[in-house]
From TrEMBL:
CDD domains: GT20_TPS. Coiled coil: none annotated. This is Trehalose-6-phosphate synthase. One of its GO terms (molecular function) is trehalose-phosphatase activity. It comes from Vallicoccus soli. It comes from the Bacteria. Residues 484-497 have a biased composition (Low complexity). GO terms for biological process: trehalose biosynthetic process.
Length: 497
């Protein structure tokens, strides 16, 4: 007889679990249903990997109500998890995006703590864990993603101890002084420790997590490992990447190159085309970028007659208050710059509040002279890597915030501190004025990095390490083993991998 708490194994050897499926369910005005690519770096990174893998992807369809029946789309097997209207409000918009998101991004906006939101977060995490358990075959690998699902590894291990479980955190993991604000910090750490392997974007994020293990849960860490009961869990950096060959091929297509020319022509063939591409999110530093750009026009250091900024700001989390306030402020700022500097038939900022297909994005990357990435905090920032991957002629300049994971890898970028507006202005001018030789030198080193370290390498590095970590599970050493063991509460920084 089957045990209701121990579901029968499913048929998939690899199961990916993320808050969203790679496609969102959209109801058209005539009542028909269509599927649209869902936003964000997580989907952009995982989709190419999942298309090549005979696995299942478990996630939410992006609309409240019943989940669709499991379906196949773009060579992927997709399994929907239902969220009610209330759960969307309290688990997704509330705890995930008004509590954890600002907390993990260094409290750029004040996080909101509600006990009720936490309860719903727990309830929804359990539903995701159960859905994954139903898909996973005996001994399967389950790869859980991102801050919305931090309790899933622990819950999954309880119901399916046979699984090999990995977790990847796509966003920063904050320093302990900030993380400690979370009333449920211990439960979050313990939830994550259900995994065999925890991946972070940067070594600093992994070190922050290991410190949280010591301080919030009183556990012993040693190097990049932590003892959790009778298991040893590894926490290391695995910087995420993009489908570099895919973007390279797109950018070489005749129609995409023709579209890039058309974009420049439509903008009046400016001498300098600056580009920003972001989800409309307060972590992206869009206002800092606009302030710097507006002042450069005020100062006359950029000439309004031959400079254009295209800002793509794709709609995101539109019912969360902080996102609504940001949208108002960005749109007022764009209006002010265009009002001050625009002329009939010419405006310096082209603001586009839309999402675009990959072809259009590649054409924009090709059309631009300078790409602006000014995030105040960003786990990685895949847009920076996409821009580099598209520039096969080795021209173009990337202005990149130091506070992105990408800054650790893209040494050829013009680095900025987005809070230093004067520094941002000077660096934009340097990037705009950089000659072809300098651009090539910088672009070559960045292209080498994204070529050698693409998303398939990221996935195989992580899954290879997960294999090894899962294998080490049974013969894990005794607590406190290892020369540099740090004990609970000592506050010592663990060595990042
Ligand atoms: O990478 C951060 C992230 O929150 C992903 O988890 C998500 O896919 C993306 O940004 C977009 O966010 P949302 O799903 O809230 O629109």
């Amino acid at each position: 007889m089957s045990d209701p708490d121990r579901p029968e194994p499913g048929e998939y050897d690899v199961v990916v679990v993320s808050n969203r499926l790679p496609v969102d369910r959209v109801e058209e005005p005539d009542g028909s249903v269509s599927w649209r690519s869902s936003p964000g770096g997580l989907v952009a990174a995982l989709e190419p990997f999942m298309r090549r893998t005979d696995g299942a992807w478990v996630g939410w369809s992006g609309a409240p109500g019943d989940a669709p029946e499991p379906f196949d789309e773009h060579d992927m097997h997709l399994v929907g998890v239902p969220l009610s209207e209330g759960e969307v409000a309290e688990y997704y918009e509330g705890f995930s995006n008004a509590t954890l998101w600002p907390l993990y991004h260094d409290v750029i906006a004040p996080p909101v703590f509600h006990r009720r939101w936490w309860d719903v977060y727990v309830q929804v995490n359990r539903r995701f864990a159960e859905a994954a358990a139903r898909q996973a075959s005996q001994g399967a690998t389950v790869w859980v993603h991102d801050y919305q699902l931090q309790l899933v590894p622990g819950m999954l291990r309880e119901i399916r101890p046979d699984l090999r479980i990995g977790f990847f955190d796509h966003i920063p993991f904050p320093g302990y002084e900030i993380f400690a604000q979370l009333p449920w910090r211990r439960q979050v750490v313990e939830g994550l420790l259900g995994a065999d392997l925890l991946g972070f974007q940067r070594g600093a994020d992994a070190a922050n997590f290991l410190r949280a293990c010591r301080r919030a849960a009183g556990l012993r860490t040693s190097g990049s490992t932590v003892r959790a009961g009778d298991r040893t869990v590894t926490a290391r950096a695995f910087p995420i990447s993009i489908d570099t060959p895919g973007f390279g091929d797109l950018a070489r297509r005749d129609d995409v190159q023709a579209r890039a020319k058309e974009i420049r022509e439509a903008l009046g063939d400016p001498r300098h085309l600056l580009l920003g591409v972001d989800r409309l999110d307060y972590t992206k530093g869009i206002l800092h970028r606009l302030k710097a750009f507006g002042e450069l026009l005020d100062d006359g250091r950029l000439d309004v007659h031959d400079t254009v900024l295209v800002q793509v700001a794709s709609p995101s989390r539109e019912r969360v208050e902080q996102y609504q306030a940001l949208r108002d402020e960005v749109e007022a700022t764009v209006g002010r710059i265009n009002g001050d500097h625009g002329e009939l038939g010419h405006q310096p900022v082209h603001y586009l509040h839309h999402s675009y297909p990959k072809e259009e994005m590649a054409a924009l990357y090709l059309a631009a002279d300078v790409m602006l990435v000014t995030s105040l905090r960003d786990g990685m920032n895949l847009v920076a890597k996409e821009f580099v991957a598209c520039r096969h002629d080795e021209t173009g300049a990337l202005v990149l915030s130091e506070f992105t994971g990408a800054a650790d890898e893209l040494g050829g970028a013009f680095l900025i501190n987005p809070h230093d507006i004067q520094g941002v202005k000077d660096t934009i001018v340097r990037a705009v004025e950089s000659g072809e030789r300098e651009q090539r030198r910088r672009m070559r080193t960045m292209r080498k990095r994204v070529r050698e370290h693409d998303v398939s390498r990221w996935a195989s590095d992580f899954l290879g390490a997960l294999d090894a970590a899962g294998g080490a599970r049974d013969d894990a050493g005794a607590p406190g083993e290892g020369g540099d063991a740090a004990t609970a509460g000592d506050g010592a920084a663990a060595a990042p991998a």
